[in-house]
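Q: My labmate handed me this sequence with no annotations at all. I'd like to see what the chain might look like in three dimensions before we decide whether it's worth expressing. Could you predict it?
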Amino acid sequence: MTEHARLTAASQLSDELERIGRLMHEVRNNLNTSLIAFDVLKRGTVGVGGSTGAVLGRSLVSMRTFVDSTLADIRTAASHHRPENVSVLTFLSEVEIAARLHADYSGLKLVIDPIAPTLTARVDPQLLESALMNLLTNGFKFTREGGSVTLRAREQDGKVRIEVEDQCGGIPDTKGDPFRPFGDRRGKDRTGLGLGLSIARKAVRAQNGDVTVRNLPGQGCVFTIEVPLATENLAAAPAAVV
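A: Here is what I predict for the chain of 242 residues:
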């Protein structure tokens, strides 16, 4: 038994060291890209609005999303949740700011369908934001340049459903489960650790919800976050997102 415990502990330590190494590798890659782009811009030989500025922007946005995902993973593992009644309209309006930047840097269009101002969810807003940004980042990453990613939210069957529809072309049957950690990913872009979808699902499940995907072969995918509907709606917001 002592030997079994020792081997189990050694295996767990090895897995954790490998995970930390992958995380640091991801941070280093994004940081190096940002520093190179910043150095080029500092010389004044290219404009901020050009391709170099776009590279810097994408790297910084990716690093922000990555840090948020890691923090969400830690909070989920520690069962550190703070559920509250959240206006979905207000919540998505705040998420939209970072999401539009990411879409612009990726040469894509972000479309947000109108949302009922009275729609309210019972969630931890920080964990939900991390999960949603992971889905949006995934959509931006694999949607063809010039395409669009659509965000919508509605009430269905007593739940709040938030959908992210991309134009990735669909997931081939050979790709397996897209929520599997370190799993294979869609498209030619091989950056990232493949942890985003796995972390998103864990963060949502920790809030009595779930994340599912509907494949649209030849078109794209629809990732759906389903979380509890608040028992009491907040006061109606002044306007709906369009």
